[in-house]
Structure formats: structure tokens, C-alpha cells
Amino acid sequence: IRYFDDFVKPTKVYRAADEVEREALARLSEALGALPQGADSEAIQNAALNVARKIERYQDHSKQSPEGGPGVSVAFFQ
Fold first, then answer.
1. Is the whole model's pTM more than 0.90, yes or no?
2. CB 30 within 8 A of CB 47
3. Contact criterion met (CB below 8 Å) for 57 and 20
4. In 3D, which of 64, 49, 72, 56 has the Cα closest to residue 19?
């Protein structure tokens, strides 16, 4: 925490989310909100990945989802 406060935070620059990112965050919020109370980590992960799989920017065609479609790019998690 001190490293962050001393070295990262003073130069950290945040930017506003673009339209695709705002839509992804809204869909993610909706998907997580629809999960039952006490959902396990696998259900949470699958909900997040299912959101990303539907957004072109976050599709990785070199990977394959369990359903056979494109996998999820690491860009979704950055």
C-alpha cells in the first residue's frame, strides 16, 4: 500500500470509460446482480465471461469458449 501511495498514485492518470466499456460495465453489473445470493466463484466467473463473449472488442478468436464460440481476450480484465 505504501508503494502505491508513494510511487503509483502521484502519477496515476484515470480516463473516462468509452461507450463500449460503459456498456460492458452496465451488462456486468446486471449479470452479477442477477446471480443468486451466495453464488460461488465459478458462477461469478462464468457471468463475467459470458458478458465479455458477447462484445466484439473482448472476443479472442484464437481461444474457444466451452460453447464453441470465441474466447475472452485479456483486454476485458484490464
1. no
2. no
3. yes
4. 56
